[in-house]
Amino acid sequence: MMSIKVVVDSSVDLPEEILEKLDVEVVPLTVTFGNDHYLDRVEMSSEEFYNRMSIEKELPKTAQPAPGRFLEVFEKYGKKGYQIICLCLSSGLSGTYNSALLAKSMSDTEVEVIDTKSGSAGIGILTYLSAKWAEVGKSLQQITADIKDYAENLTVYALLETVENAVKGGRLSPIKGVIANLLNLKVIVEVNEGKVNILEKVRGTKKAYERLVQLVEEKAKGKAVPLVGLAHVANEKGTLILKEMLQQVVKDAEFFQTTMSGTIGTYAGKGGIVLAF
User: Fold this and answer.
1) Residue 29 and residue 48: Cα distance in Å, rounded?
2) pLDDT in tens, 96-131
3) Helix, strand, or coil here: 145?
4) 3 state DSSP class of 250
5) pLDDT in tens, 37-70
6) Rounded CA separation 128/117 (Å)
7) What is the C-alpha separation between 19 and 164, in angstroms, rounded?
């Protein structure tokens, strides 16, 4: 039986100790502030990233890994006799998937590349499941089919504490941004097929958490929810409060929580929380 290696790009949000324990290989995207380039999570930790982001006028830019970076990883594990499952940030948000596909076409290693149509805690859940299924001996084809299925039914919400980054990133006009901040509006968005849709604007953080829990309850009705992933931008306190509220609703779920990687955190902004299940 072939061993399977799970490879994922750095948009994944899972606690570092879980990634290490599952022996997942993370391929970094590049983050750019002005003329300074950093490999996400390698040359710049999430904490350093957010400190830098808070003092810059312009939002950092992120770029997909070059195909050569994926190719290197595929070759390295191929030589060791591994088959590879490679999970990529939604093709609707980044060119990472195309980079990995190009690398696959240049490699002799058996690789399955998956467009997760997700990111952050969503891709975290898919990474965790891939590694767990590989551990229990599922075949590459089986894992690929099951992950694609799971990805189809994955729900990803994000709660934006501030619209500052949406304004900086040109996704919201400055005037609307000022109004949203004045009214203490929190924005709830859903990531669907890699596209980000605004669901609602809620006044105040507490009400926003309550509404988020309500949305989860509606979506989870009559369905088993084995895993819930939470990722935040410098908002551990809020994440814990939300987690406790969610535990009342999805009682049997296993929860992960972690700091959001820079790739997604750029858009979520300070205080932002991503919730996937």
Assistant:
1) 16
2) 999 999 999 999 999 999 999 999 999 999 999 999
3) helix
4) coil
5) 999 988 988 888 888 988 888 888 889 999 999 9
6) 16
7) 31
Say if CB 271 and CB 234 are below 8 A apart: yes
Q: Which two tokens stand for residue 77?
A: 């594990």
Other CB atoms within 10 A of residue 108 CB: 9
What domains are there in the chain, each with its CATH number? 3-152 (3.40.50.10170), 156-276 (3.30.1180.10)
End-to-end CA distance of the chain: 31
Retrieve residue 273's tokens: 């929380």
State pTM to two decimals.
0.92
Tokens of 9: 């790009």
**Closest Cα to residue 158, out of 217, 90, 232, 226?**
232
Q: Which residue has the tokens 């990474």?
A: 127
Residue 108 vs residues 8, 72, 84: alpha-carbon distances, Å: 19, 12, 11
Angle 19-23-25 (CA atoms, 0-180°, nearest 5)? 80
DSSP lists the bridge partners of residue 31 as: 38, 62
What strands lie across the sheet with 82-88, from one edge to the other?
25-27, 3-9, 82-88, 111-115
